[in-house]
Write a structure and sequence with these properties.
Beta-Lactamase, 17 helices, elongated, Sig_transdc_His_kin-like_C, EC 2.7.13.3, ATP binding
């Protein structure tokens, strides 16, 4: 319980702080303190009580489940006894030929895998038929005693389980059914149960997953054990006697669940004290009742449950026969395409939900599906009944029967409309980030650009003033004014070029990848690079290999990458001497790529910066957004290239990116 530090009570009298009424204020803390004292025992006792209740509930649940499993095993044994008794009646009545009886024996063994073998003995205890190689000498001592007891009492008898020696040593339990015709013993039917198979075949998987199950005698000799989920913890246990004639066989259950932890219940109890206890208890009880009812329903009607499970899936399911006819669709698929099950089942290609623009791709995939056992997920579009298109992701696999023969195709269809919308939103967000990055870059260039524009504008103003003064002085020949006008024109073109470079870089537009030379991109962005370099008093050296193959790029996006990398390189060399301030840019062919390297000679980067360099919102600059390099890498990867960096051996950092080259018969000179 947290310790509360109570402030000293104060009152304000005539704008002065006074402590004369502190006893009165302290009285307000008495009820919370008393409540805390009263709740302390509850906080201690409630978890203990909750733990005990949870333990008892688990034990009661285990007892109920054990009873259900025990009844299931007994029910199956009784069914087998009835089947054996029917065979015995046919033998007594001599109404079925021996060969037909033997066939029925074999069929019974195959139908019930928990049965190890079935033996037909005559009146002299000689084997007339056995589903496995067998001689009477192979009977265990318990089985021989059971034969004598069954014959003398004229009632069926189980024998105590025993190990059958041989190539495959197994523990068997024999059931002897004596046959009498007109009170004369004519033989016996003996069926052997493999003890391990009783647990494997007659115990549900969901029960075996949570419990260690064993069959023992009264002396705790284990005949069979199943522990799919691990061995029990001896916390929740229960035993049931199978109550079989002639044998003491005990079904023991040992849950793998451990004792409920006190700490977790203590935390839950603390939450309960905050007002949610009653609601949580009622909800937990309601949930437990629903789960128990659902489990009981599933056990009684497994096929119905499986059908309901398929129909409740949000993933669309459809089954096609080998000839392409729809034979099954689940409700999720019907909701997805807007057609009812009656409208779809029995339909063949072209199906009503096929989109006209994708019919060719559907038709092409049909023969592919005829040659492959499965088809990995592929995207296409379906047409809803109301006409709108639905992007879907389809997985298809072969549908096999019990004999392994293919009977059709099973497909699962996912509606990926939300994913497509999220991808669109992500693309728009990235575009906005790119635009913000360009605007941020231009903000940094604003002062330099103003200085650069000031020079041509000042020159234009000077030449214009000189021309006006000459004109005021008298008649002036055009040839005299021509040099001034030419200089004014050149300076105006220079200012216009600077403004156009800025405009082309900042303007927002859709990506447009065209085939071009990288030299053209550098010619466009070079004025902006030189503007930045001039403000830092840095010399720019550009080397472009000739000839270079074309590349398929969006020039504006690539200009943003180049400008961002060069700006980082320039800023990294601010502390160097003027002789060391050299920015190198090298463009050359590298295999099937065109490689661009931006080289600075600064101080390099620490390991902590290297590890987080491309992380979003990480920046070493106080005013940086931390998105520049991340956006650059996204742009380069969008073009099919890669952005990397390494330390410069002479000091500084080398950023390198590659772009796939477009090979052509003739290389365009840039």
């Amino acid at each position: 319980m947290p310790i509360l530090k109570l402030p000293k009570p104060i009152t304000i009298v005539d704008n002065h702080i006074s402590r004369t009424r502190s006893p009165f204020i302290k009285q307000h803390w008495v009820p919370p303190i008393l409540l805390a004292i009263l709740l302390l025992p509850v906080l201690i006792l409630l978890p203990w009580r909750s733990q005990k209740i949870e333990f008892e509930d688990r034990q009661q649940q285990l007892i109920a489940d054990t009873l259900w499993v025990e009844q299931g095993i007994r029910f199956q044994l009784i069914r087998n006894e009835d089947s054996l008794r029917v065979l015995g009646d046919d033998i007594i009545a001599n109404s079925v030929a021996p060969e037909q009886l033997k066939a029925r024996f074999s069929a019974l063994i195959q139908k019930h895998p928990e049965l190890h073998q079935l033996i037909w003995l005559d009146a002299k205890d000689q084997v007339r038929f056995s589903t496995r190689p067998f001689t009477p000498a192979d009977f265990s001592l318990y089985s021989k005693q059971a034969i004598v007891h069954a014959r003398s009492s004229e009632t069926p008898q189980y024998a105590q389980p025993a190990t059958q020696e041989g190539e495959d040593s197994v523990i068997l339990m024999d059931y002897h059914l004596p046959l009498f015709r007109h009170n004369r013993y004519i033989g016996s039917l003996v069926v052997s149960y493999e003890m391990s198979e009783i647990l494997e075949k007659l115990v549900p998987w969901w029960f075996a997953k949570d419990n260690e199950i064993s069959l023992t005698d009264i002396d705790d000799i284990v005949f069979a054990m199943r522990a799919d989920g691990g061995y029990g913890h001896n916390v929740y246990t229960h035993s049931r006697n199978l109550d079989l004639s002639g044998v003491n066989l005990i079904l023991k259950i040992n849950s793998i669940k451990s004792t409920p932890r006190l700490l977790s219940n203590y935390l839950v109890a603390a939450v309960v004290l905050l007002g949610l206890g009653l609601v949580w208890s009622l909800w937990a009880l309601w949930r437990d009742i629903l789960r128990r009812q659902a489990a009981e329903t599933a056990l009684r009607e497994q096929m119905a449950f499986r059908s309901a499970m398929e129909k409740s899936l949000v993933t669309g399911l459809r089954v096609r026969s080998l000839d392409g006819r729809l034979v099954y669709v689940n409700p999720a698929f019907c909701d997805m395409v807007g057609y009812t099950e009656q409208q779809l089942v029995g339909q063949k290609a072209p199906l009503p939900f096929w989109a006209a623009e994708a019919i060719d791709s559907y038709q092409k995939r049909l023969p592919i599906m005829g040659k492959n056992m499965s088809l990995s997920g592929f995207e296409t579009v379906y047409k809803h009944a109301d006409g709108h298109l639905i992007p879907v992701l389809i997985y298809e696999s072969a549908l096999l029967d019990d004999d392994g023969m293919q009977t059709g195709w099973m497909g699962s269809i996912l509606d990926i409309s939300d994913r497509k919308q999220a991808e669109q939103i992500l693309r728009q967000h990235e575009e906005r980030l790119e635009s913000s990055a360009r605007l941020s870059t231009m903000g940094e260039l604003a002062s330099v650009m103003a200085h650069e524009l000031n020079q041509p504008l000042a020159a234009i103003s000077s030449y214009a003033t000189g021309a006006l003064n000459m004109m005021k002085m008298g008649d002036v020949e055009p040839s005299v004014l021509q040099p001034a006008l030419i200089q004014m024109q050149n300076q105006a073109q220079r200012a216009g070029q600077i403004i156009r470079s800025v405009h082309d870089f900042v303007v927002k537009r859709e990506p447009n990848r065209t085939q071009m030379q990288l030299k053209a991109v550098f010619n466009s962005v070079l004025p902006l690079i030189e503007l930045q370099a001039k403000s830092y008093l840095i010399n720019v050296q550009i080397y472009i290999e000739h000839p270079l193959p074309d590349v398929l790029v969006d020039s504006i996006s690539l200009e943003q990458v180049i400008l961002n990398l060069t700006r980082n390189a320039l800023q990294a060399m601010q502390e160097l001497t003027l002789q060391q301030r050299i920015l190198q840019i090298e463009v050359k062919k590298y295999g099937n790529y065109v490689q661009v390297e931006v080289i600075d000679h600064g101080a390099g980067m620490d390991q902590d910066v290297v590890d987080r360099l491309f992380s979003p919102f990480f920046s070493t600059k106080a005013e940086g957004m931390g998105m520049g390099l991340n956006i650059c890498r996204t742009i380069i990867e969008f073009h099919g290239g890669q952005l990397t960096f390494r330390a410069n051996p002479t000091g500084g950092t080398i950023f390198c990116f590659t772009l796939p080259a477009i090979e052509s018969s003739s290389t365009i000179e840039g």
